[in-house]
Amino acid sequence: MINYTEKIWGLPAAEMHGDWAEQRIKGLSMLALAKDALVRVFHGGNTGTKRTLADTFYYPESGTGLIYDTIKDELDARGCKILLNTEPSHVVHSNDRLQRVRCKNPGGEVEIEFRQVAESIPVGEFLNLLSPRPPARVLELQKKLHYRDQAYLFLTLDQPSVTSDQWIYFPEKSIPIGRMSEMRNFSDRMSPPGKTSLFLEFFCTEGDPIWNMDGDELFEHAIPHLERMRFTDRSKVRQHYHLRERNVYPVYDVNYQDYLNEIKSYLNGFSNLHCIGRPGRFRYNNQDHSLEMGFLAARSIIEGIRYDLDLVGSDKAYFERGPIPVEVPDEDTTGRNTATAAPQTNAISTTTVVASGQTIPTSEMQRPADTNVGQSLSQSVHRRSESTSPSRNSSDTASRMAGKNRTAL
Ligand SMILES: Cc1cc2nc3c(=O)[nH]c(=O)nc-3n(C[C@H](O)[C@H](O)[C@H](O)COP(=O)(O)OP(=O)(O)OC[C@H]3O[C@@H](n4cnc5c(N)ncnc54)[C@H](O)[C@@H]3O)c2cc1C
């Protein structure tokens, strides 16, 4: 995985901080890999204890957006106001408290007063919103925290399928594609019958050649590789759609903790601020971690105690595996497995969090009893087995991690 990791971060492995491995591949050893391989061969299962070896997961039937649409519906139903297309321009503070935020929206400007703030935008962008400005030293340090960006191509193919895999990772530097995802293999509803929706990710940094390519250029850059690996050919491509995202991956270089700690101690000085999420905490979260941070920030506000959000996802338990029941699921009509049981949504996770000096295992915490987000979701969440089909073109070293390796989301 070293090549792939270097491709994601755009850094030689020697310049990366060990936290990356600590967070994502902790507990993985050659012995564990060998044991897992043997169990798979002889028993068709897996040892299932290490975080890079998780091999089943739930996926919302109509895509991961279902989770957030459901949360939005719940909030709407409770009369909460969500402002879309509204961008903060200033966050005004005084007396160690954030007081109000000024926002731009298509209708002009709005100013909102609040008691508590949970923010999840990139650290530097948040610091630059503060008025009065943070100390010069803090503003200097934030420039040393880097995020990696991404370009994406979504291809619609006139072919029923490309592979049986959810993900294929390409560690080779000679292949510009970082990862390819075939959406139907997550859920049948993700592609129309007879067509394939193929998602290509390219790791880049704003302003570099990949970032600067427009959709047609990026397509021309990628398609020869897809053809060479015999995944598809250009005659089958009905359309492609191009997207770019900034600040996708916080870059854990060897010094990032020093910079981040100093910035955090400044931000911690605001008594009503809760920095959450992947960009907001400069932490390599998966979605479950970001959601959990949101839950804990809410609890911090409601209970008036501060939970240490950096402990989310830091223990040995692989949260994505935790709530998945182990019963053998029913077969559906397509021969694929569907879950019969809902994910256990009552326990937040087995993570241990520290609140004001107390240690509270979150497995002992219950989510608010009136939440039915998990319930609504469970009706359309499928349990997927990650496929392990052999490489179509084994002479090519395109690494078919097939979703087995969860280190690189
Ligand atoms: C291609 C890809 C595939 C992934 N697949 C998986 C997966 O299968 N499973 C999984 O668990 N995780 C996956 N992840 C990771 C997952 O997307 C992140 O963990 C998750 O999005 C983090 O959520 P967040 O709310 O912390 O941050 P984000 O989702 O990054 O949200 C931050 C938001 O802040 C907004 N923002 C930024 N600056 C400003 C500003 N100045 N003002 C206002 N808004 C601003 C951004 O537009 C963004 O909407 C994947 C990530 C990528 C890129």
Write the H/E string, N to C: HHHEHEEEEHEHEEEEHHEHEHHEEEEHE
How would you state the average pLDDT, rounded? 78
Strand arrangement in the largest pleated sheet? 8-9-10-7-11
Tally of DSSP helical segments:
12
> Radius of gyration in whole Å, from Cα?
22 Å
Strand content: 15-25%
- How is the main sheet built? 5 strands, antiparallel
Bound molecules: flavin-adenine dinucleotide
Strand tally is: 17
Outline type: globular
Instruction: Give start-end ranges of low-pLDDT stretches.
Output: 316-380, 386-408
Question: End-to-end distance, in Å?
Answer: 13 Å
Question: Helical content, roughly?
Answer: 25-40%
Oligomer: single chain
Q: Structural class of the secondary structure composition?
A: alpha+beta
Protein model, in words:
- With 409 residues, the chain is of the alpha+beta class.
- It contains 12 helices and 17 strands.
- The chain is globular and about 60 Å long.
- The two termini are 13 Å apart.
- Mean pLDDT is 78; it is low at 316-380 and 386-408.
- Bound molecules: flavin-adenine dinucleotide.
- Residues 87-88, 120-122, 125, 150, 201, 248, 277-279, 285-288, 290, 409 line the site of flavin-adenine dinucleotide (FAD).
